[in-house]
Structure to design on (479 residues):
């Protein structure tokens, strides 16, 4: 049964939570546009595309904004109640801290469940659509992706390097274009300046280059009979076919990332990746054994060798006749090189699959850790607010930022440890939770006993007493 106290606490919480969630979501969404604002401005994107991009980015950050909003709003709620002495009145009535935290804890558990459902069902689709939309923007505006001083190789058959781009992304300087071919040498274009633009049908990318040189070499790779041509120009038009870039907007299946999978899909992918040991054992035997011919006789061939004869042989070379020793050595080296090459390919493939397994396990745990973070950060924010007893935006915002930064840093460190194989996915992805749970328990313990943990007057009096003690100690020592 909901009592008046529960209604009071819930009403005090709803307003700050909505405001904190809106602010957190806005800041996290702006983080994306702060990174890409220079690439988005002036690209001629229509309003619908911009709104769609904003909506997808906003949805993507919802599971991250919820823990921050719960932390901020819980500190603000209990800080406001403490500042207006409502907490004092509630405690004076004999109601413990955990009792008036109970309605908000129930709401937090409900929000945590919504965060899991959102991360499991909405975020995979959002991530897929966002990747497809970003790709469509890059395709329609390749200037979006061509950076200054970086070799751009996403146009098939070419590598482009721009020394400088003007703010309108059309005027370019110090242009270098390599035309990749299977011949002896790549052709190359160098120009001092130019203009880069997309044709109206969006099928071609045009470079109008000025004051430059074109270098071209023709001939067979294995001969010296080649022809080198150098041509200077005042203006040169180079057209790039963007046909290889074309992709229908419905072609979302072209993208794959573990972030785009639900928990059920991740379970299936992880199960298949974890069964690789037996697969690679059979594959190794199938691909390496043919080069080790003696393995065919490992069951019966050794019985042909008499033990008495082995005792008289001091070196393996004594078993091989001098006439065929060199050919046997060459054949053995060739076989070992083939075995080494096959094993290197198998090793690289196995490591790549293991990396994919770790990425899938990271996403599996992430869907749970973000939901658990809602509860953990609330259990930090509620007692913290009752201790500091400061409402408004100032002090609660400072403490919310501090603890969220701690959560984010340990979450990032844990993910890095998993990717570098320094920690298991369980330990790495739950590292921030393991660190913050003791802090929440400590703050709850202090809040239940009306601790003066953040009382400036308490520390001032303690320091004053310590200073008086040191003064008396030094005086007695001198006397």
């Amino acid at each position: 049964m909901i009592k008046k106290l529960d209604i009071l606490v819930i009403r005090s919480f709803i307003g700050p939570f909505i405001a904190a969630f809106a602010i957190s979501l806005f800041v996290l969404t702006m983080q994306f546009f702060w990174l890409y604002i220079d690439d988005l401005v002036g690209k001629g994107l229509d309003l619908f595309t911009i709104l769609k991009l904003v909506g997808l980015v906003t949805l993507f950050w919802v599971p991250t904004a919820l823990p921050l909003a719960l932390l901020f709003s819980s500190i603000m709620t209990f800080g406001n109640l403490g500042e207006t002495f409502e907490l004092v009145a509630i405690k004076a009535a004999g109601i413990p801290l955990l009792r008036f935290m109970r309605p908000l804890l129930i709401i937090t558990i409900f929000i945590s469940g919504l965060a899991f459902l959102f991360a499991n069902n909405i975020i995979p689709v959002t991530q897929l659509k966002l990747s497809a939309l970003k790709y469509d923007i890059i395709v329609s505006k390749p200037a979006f992706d061509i950076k200054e001083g970086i070799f751009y190789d996403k146009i098939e058959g070419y590598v482009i390097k721009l020394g400088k781009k003007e703010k309108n992304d059309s005027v370019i300087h110090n242009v270098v274009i390599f035309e990749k071919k299977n011949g002896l040498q790549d052709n190359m274009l160098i120009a001092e300046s130019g203009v880069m633009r997309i044709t109206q049908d969006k099928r071609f990318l045009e470079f109008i280059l000025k004051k430059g040189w074109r270098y071209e070499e023709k001939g067979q790779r294995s001969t010296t009979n080649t022809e080198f041509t150098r041509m200077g120009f005042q203006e040169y038009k180079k057209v790039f076919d963007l046909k290889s870039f074309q992709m229908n907007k419905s072609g979302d299946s072209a993208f794959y990332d573990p972030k785009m999978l639900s928990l059920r899909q991740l379970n299936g992918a992880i199960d298949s990746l974890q069964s690789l040991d037996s697969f690679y054992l059979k594959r190794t035997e199938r691909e390496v054994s043919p080069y080790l011919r003696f393995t065919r006789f490992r069951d019966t061939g050794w019985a042909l060798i008499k033990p008495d004869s082995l005792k008289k042989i001091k070196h393996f070379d004594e078993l091989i006749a001098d006439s065929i020793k060199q050919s046997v050595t060459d054949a053995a080296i060739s076989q070992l090189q083939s075995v080494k090459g096959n094993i290197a390919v198998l090793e690289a493939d196995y490591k790549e699959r293991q990396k994919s397994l770790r990425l899938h396990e990271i996403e599996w745990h992430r869907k749970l850790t973000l939901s658990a973070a809602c509860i953990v950060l609330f259990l930090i924010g509620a007692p913290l607010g009752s201790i500091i007893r400061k409402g408004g935006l100032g002090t609660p915002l400072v403490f919310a930022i501090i603890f969220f930064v701690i959560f984010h840093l340990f979450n990032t460190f844990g993910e890095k440890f998993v990717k570098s194989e320094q920690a298991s996915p369980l330990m790495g992805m739950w590292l921030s939770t393991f660190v913050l749970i003791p802090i929440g328990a400590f703050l709850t313990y202090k809040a239940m006993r009306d601790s003066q943990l953040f009382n400036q007057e308490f520390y001032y009096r303690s320091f004053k007493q310590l200073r008086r003690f040191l003064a008396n100690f030094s005086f007695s020592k001198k006397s």
In short: The longest strand covers residues 204-218. The mean pLDDT is 77. The CA atoms of residues 213 and 452 lie 76 Å apart.
